[in-house]
Amino acid sequence: SRQINNCNGEITNLLCLGLICHYQGQYNEAVKYYQQALKTNIKLEDLTSEYLFLKAKTLGNLGITYHNLDKYNESVQCNESSLALFHQLGDQRGEASALLGLGQDYYTLGDYEKGFDCTQQALDIAQEIGDRYNEAEALNILGMLYREMGDYEQAIDLHQQQIIIVREVGDLRGEGYAMGNLSVVYEKLEDYVQSGNYAQKHLAISQRLGDRRGEGAALHSLGIALLELSEFTDALKILQTALAIFKEVDSKSEEAQILQDLAIVYWELNDIDSALECCYKALDLITALELPSIKNCQELIEQIKNNEQQRD
Questions:
Q1: What stretches of residues are TPR repeats (predicted)?
Q2: How far is Cα 7 from Cα 182, in angstroms, rounded to an integer?
Q3: Cα angle, residue 195 at apex, residues 168 and 223 outer, rounded to 5°
Q4: What is the DSSP string of 35-67?
Q5: What is the pTM of this model?
Q6: CA dihedral 73, 297, 274, 288 (to 10 degrees)
Q7: pLDDT(91) > 50
């Protein structure tokens, strides 16, 4: 049994190191620690429930990290394995976490039906066992799903519910996510002043937490608000800062989105060469990641080119 305790201790240490890297935006480093934890040798007869719990937890963390690295298929596999182990252990909190990981994956992959299904299951479990953290996260993902389906009122309502819970449990990071998502909803509603206000709140929280990814997302939303309010020079500066952050944390999908927004800013500033350069960089990233936004990017390139020909 000493061997098991040593083994579990080693896995716990690797898990902690992985989490530290993850929160600092060092996702590739985090992956190494999680994979090392999963490779820890243990004899078959020593498969205690504590060991299985740690393995399930590691798989779940690895899933989140893969998601942030835009490796969505790997993320789905990790979350499904994590879900199966937590189910085997009868650990409902773990099941809810794994289902939320899947909900997030399917949301990003544009499979909203599966996203709804997983997230709603997670919400039901979380409410049943009084798990406020996962309940808030489920409301967050459902809000994002409703937003993408065009039901903005429902999205706002869900994020407001989320804010009540995260404040109650003192989850500042969760509050930041809620502010960030409300900023995006108001952007869709074309209320750019309100969108900018929520982006500023998200930015302040992210900077306080040292959350680089959150900071990048907040600056991205703020940049879009400034672009729509025709503050092009400010928008350019803010979006370039956001782009640098997402390059730093190696998030290619966010990089691609910001490049497209930068293209529009350059276009508005009559710098057509820079606009097209941003578009082509974005197109390369989107193509490599097989993201659903490829059509939008191609249309933007056509618009800029046609507009330029008309001017000539």
A1: 11-44, 96-129, 136-169
A2: 43
A3: 120
A4: HHHHH----GGG--HHHHHHHHHHHHHHHHHHH
A5: 0.85
A6: 30
A7: yes
